[in-house]
Amino acid sequence: MRRVRVLVVGAATALTLGLTITPAQAHGAHKPPRPPTATTVADGLLTALSFAVGADGTAYVSQNFAGVLTKVPKRGAPSNLYSSGGAEVGGVSVTGRNVLFAETGFSGDPQNPGGFTGIKSVDKRGTVKVVADTGAYEIAKNPDGGVVYGARGISAACRAQWPAPDPETGEGPPPSTYTGDVNPHPYATLPGPSGTTFVADAGANSIQRISASGRITTLALMPAQPITITAELAGGLGIPACAVGLKYSFDPVPTDVEWGPDGWLYVTLLPGGPEDASFGARGVLYKVHPRTGRTVKVAGGFTGATNLAVTPKGDIYVSEIYGNQVSVLKRGSRTPKRFAALPWATSVEYARGSLYATSSPELEDLFAGLPPAPESTLVKYRLSKPGHKHRR
C-alpha cells in the first residue's frame, strides 16, 4: 500500500489526542441523521469502523482509533470487552464463543515495526489469545513486493520528465512506478472451516488465510486498479503530457471479506489513490475462490466501498463512506442501487433477517486534524417480517 487511504490512515493521529473512551450508550439523546426506517442499537461510539453480531443478537463493535472492542448486548448496558492500550482495533467477527479482531500497532517502519500487528481472539470471560502475527508475516514475505504499480510501460524518456515529490513535505504527484511496500494492516476477519481464518489486509493488498495452527499464507493478491491518464488528470496532478493515454495502476485496498451463499469469498476494495469521487466511483466488489485464490470482479461503481454484507439469498449490501449511503446489489445484478442514505457509512452486517450498519461522521473532523467527538452510531434495518425463517 503506497497511496493515502481513507480509514486506513490517521490512527496514530487519533491516538495521540489523549481520548478517554467510555462504553457506548445504548440509546443516547443525540444521534446523527439516519434514515427513518433505521432503529438505533447503540450510539456514542468513536470511529466504529467494524462490528459483528453474534447468534444471540449481541453486537461487538470496534472503536478503531481508540483501540477498544465494545460489547453491545440486546438488553443491558454496553461494556468494553478489550482495550489495546493504544494500537488500532478493528476487523471484528464472531466464531462460536469467541470474537476475532485485528490489532494494528505497526509503526510504518519495517526496521522498527512497533507494537503487535495481527489477529487476536477474546472469549466471553475476557481471555485474549493471539491467533496469528500477520505483521511479522508481511515484513518477512511482502507478497506483493514484486508487483509493479503506477504507469506500467512508461518510457524511459517520459519517466525522466516525471516530477519527484517535495523532499520536505512529500507532497506531489504519485510516483511514475512503484512496487508493493511493507505495510501490514489487517482490516477484516472471517471465520472459515476447520478453524481457519481469512483476513483482508488493506496494507498488504491481499487476502490471507490462517490455519487452525496459526500458519499464514497469502490466498490472493487483489488486482491492481487502473485508471487512464487523461490530459485533465495529468494537468491536475502535475505529471508530464507524455503520460496521457497510459493506464496508471493503483494498488488495491481490500476492506472486508464475507462468505457468499455460493461458497466464494466476497471482498470490497478501495481503489487506491483518491478514494472519493475525484476520479469517479472506483470502488469495486470481487469474489475470491477460498481454495485457489482465483479473483472475479462482481461489480463496480461504489464511492468508498468500506464493508459488505451478504444475505442467504445472495443480495449484497455495501457501505459507501463517500457516497454517504448503504447500497444494495440484488442477486444476479451488476449495478448497485441505493438502499438507504447514511452519512459516513462505514460498515454493514447481516444477521437474522436484519441489516446492521454503522455511521461515523466524526471522521470528517478526524481527517481535518480536529479532535473527534464520539458520534458513531450502530443502526438496524429490518429486511424481513418477524417470524420469517432465514437459512444461516
Automatic annotation (TrEMBL):
Q: Which InterPro entries match?
A: 6-blade_b-propeller_TolB-like, ScyD/ScyE-like, Vgb
Signal sequence extent: 1-26
- Domain of life, per UniProt, equals Bacteria
- UniProt keywords, alphabetically: Signal
Record-given protein name = ScyD/ScyE family protein
